[in-house]
Amino acid sequence: MARMPGAEWIGPTANLYPGGMVEHRGLVLHIQDGTEAGSESWFKDPSSEASAHFLNPKSGGLRQLVDTDDAAWTEMAGNRHWVSIENEGLGGDSLTASQIENCAQLLAWLHAQYGVPVVSTDDVNATGLIWHGAGGAAWGGHYDCPGDPVLAQRPQIIARAQQLVGQPQTPPPAPAPNYPAWPGEYLRVQQPMLHDDNVRTWQQQMAHRGWSITADGWYGPASASVCRQFQQEKNLGVDGIVGPQTWAAAWTAPVTA
To answer: 8-165 falls under which CATH superfamily?
Structure first.
């Protein structure tokens, strides 16, 4: 039995695979798209065929629904490999300070319990702190879960978890600059061809990451090709359009060697 010390036990639920974890690669961030009480009720309803290891309310401590040696029903193909945390809130919400602390405490415990590294990853075959949308269609196609604001807070979670386990803290990456056109016109191939400083800023950042791209401010087929390759690498929706998530990932996602 593996239950996190200090987390409130709120089980049981029938929605799990007993002893079903074949490994513990890391922690998956989710957003509840609802309230804590509503999510708990839903995860305990057998007809929902859904659950999560941990629920993280906007205030208060962690609440554990599924033993971490059992597989929760939350990421389809990822169920037997990853521990899940459902954060109270709606898509587009940021985590509260309490939720960030709870996520960090959980990641630190998973590090001690299973050797999970205290790093971010966007690769479902790697280890560390990942997010639901990174799993793509195999994880249910929830590409916007938990949302850009939560993804932008991963460095805070990692830095706090590193502090908790006594590791040197990794400086967080520079945040993505604001793109004032959102909501509105995204960077995409169009006629007449889009040409502005936002395109140049994104191209410069992609070149800085190592992509072969000319920072000329024109968003044409070459830029769209780099965009699609980047989206595929980072398990984003592949459409060749630089929307909010792709824009943010250009600054916050780990650089793949």
So the answer is: Peptidoglycan recognition protein-like (3.40.80.10)
